[in-house]
Design goal:
Rossmann fold, 7 helices, ATP binding, transport, Lipoprotein-releasing system ATP-binding protein, ABC_transporter-like_ATP-bd
Length: 223
């Protein structure tokens, strides 16, 4: 079976005055179907840049990005949008929920954009949120939820369209240690239950050890 994600020779550099800054230096990375991989490295090591590359969120990269066996680096803007919508889910350090929508609606919306009917989308949202312990908070808006609850909604939203790969950038970095542990445990349990793969950037070595495999990024190179 093809890897969900495979990058080959992925590089990213930019000019800063007279100097060229090399952020990624030929990254070769694979993620197998259903595998949860921790991407570890200090601030400035290139973790977010790598996630932006494989998430097809920015241009300016050199090298190959294969998602589900398809060369994503060669897609035009529309093709990248379709691939993000159909195959990828995203969780960020800050939840980025829509403030005027309640928890259920925040999880329903990406499904409607994907073409789902409203009733199945509602059912899917309720199922995911309930699995994350939010069955009693379905109609609450983000401002009525705690930080941990908001991040759980963000996790449910990322999984709403059953992505093959979830990309997460410090998904518990804005939470206290106890809440981070609880949210990550629920995140990993749900991702595994859904059969998705995940690439999760973190600087927390303790949390990284809870994942299937750890890869380390140092000065733009995987070690």
């Amino acid at each position: 079976m093809n890897d969900v994600l495979r990058t080959t020779g992925l590089t990213r550099s930019f000019r800063q005055g007279e100097e060229t800054i090399h952020v990624l230096r030929g990254v070769d990375l694979s993620v197998a179907p259903g595998e949860i991989v921790a991407l570890v490295g200090p601030s400035g090591s290139g973790k977010s840049t790598l996630l932006q590359a494989v998430g097809l969120l920015e241009g300016g990269f050199q090298g190959s990005i294969m998602i589900g066996g398809e060369e994503a680096a060669k897609l035009d803007a529309h093709g990248r949008t379709i691939m993000r919508r159909d195959r990828l889910g995203f969780v960020y350090q800050f939840h980025h929920l829509l403030p005027d929508f309640n928890a259920t609606e925040n999880v329903v919306l990406p499904q409607l954009v994907h073409g789902a009917e409203r009733k199945p989308a509602d059912d899917r949202a309720v199922s995911l949120l309930t699995a994350l312990g939010l069955g009693h908070r379905l109609t609450h808006r983000p401002s009525q939820l705690s930080g941990g609850e908001q991040q759980r909604v963000a996790v449910a939203r990322a999984l709403a369209n059953r992505p093959a790969l979830v990309l997460a950038d410090e998904p518990t970095g804005n939470l206290d240690e106890h809440t981070a542990d609880v949210v990550l445990a629920e995140f990993l349990r749900l991702v595994r239950g859904e059969g998705s793969a995940a690439l999760i950037a973190t600087h927390n070595e303790r949390l990284a050890q809870k994942m299937d495999r750890v890869v380390r990024l140092h000065e733009g190179v995987l070690t």
